[in-house]
Design goal:
The chain has ten helices and five strands. The chain is an alpha/beta fold. The two termini are 30 Å apart. The structure holds iron/sulfur cluster.
Length: 222
């Protein structure tokens, strides 16, 4: 992975481009998260376009765009719903409590955040953490499709119902979680969002069980 000038870290020199002051633009991230700011060379243009994107109303209230983290290409990709408050502050996906649980789940299959690609269906935080609406998801869809093409994963795990709906629009997550389906030459595995497991502790074991099949899917031994 190449370290490039990152729009999430680099102050904007043109004051007309954004009203956000430089001191707010510079996130103070814990040292452990700094590797997640590295931008894969192939993703740089997409990340920069996202950083300036005005295509839906979420552009008006975001602090930072949250394009994604991790290497590209990468065999394993996770797609969540939308950035929350901490993600909006740092410009990184899954860095709050849900992210800590995601880290635990990754550790259970011998992976870590630096060797998986993580993003959301929308790249800007909905106010008050409301659900992203269909217009916002549609406006952001091209970025996600480009990321999937750049990452070219063998396995995509959707986290929560909004990313699940991209492939399984008529299904309920309670009925299809953990069932891997092949689409366009890769496995798509719908899973609960880690935040759901924080609200309902019984889902922790369910998510761990759903994660346990990922190594077999990656190895092609299913
Ligand atoms: S959510 Fe997506 S489409 Fe909307 S402003 Fe952010 S980057 Fe653009």
């Amino acid at each position: 992975m190449t370290t490039l000038a990152n729009p999430r870290l680099t102050p904007v020199s043109d004051p007309q481009r954004s009203p956000v002051p430089d001191d707010i633009r510079r996130p103070v991230a814990p040292a452990a998260l700094l590797p997640l700011y590295e931008v894969p060379a192939g993703c740089a243009t997409t990340y920069e376009e996202i950083a300036d994107c005005p295509a839906c109303v979420l552009a008006k209230t975001r602090s930072r765009t949250v394009p994604g983290s991790g290497p590209a290409p990468c065999d394993l990709m996770f797609i969540g719903e939308a950035p929350g408050q901490r993600e909006d502050e740092l410009g990184l996906p899954f860095v709050g409590r849900s992210g800590q649980f995601l880290d635990d789940l990754l550790a259970s299959i011998g992976r870590s955040r630096t060797d998986v690609y993580v993003t959301n269906v929308v790249k800007c935080r909905p106010p008050a953490n409301r659900d992203p609406n269909p217009e916002e998801i549609a406006a952001c869809r091209d970025y996600l499709d480009r990321q999937i093409a750049l990452v070219a994963p063998r396995v995509i795990a959707t986290l929560g119902r909004f990313s699940m709906a991209k492939w399984f629009p008529a299904e309920r997550i309670s009925q299809i979680h953990g069932r891997a389906v092949q689409r366009d030459g890769r496995w798509i595995v719908p899973m609960y969002h880690p935040a759901a497991a924080l609200r309902d502790g019984s889902l922790r074991a369910v998510m761990k069980q759903d994660f346990a099949q990922i190594p077999s899917l990656l190895a092609g031994t299913v």
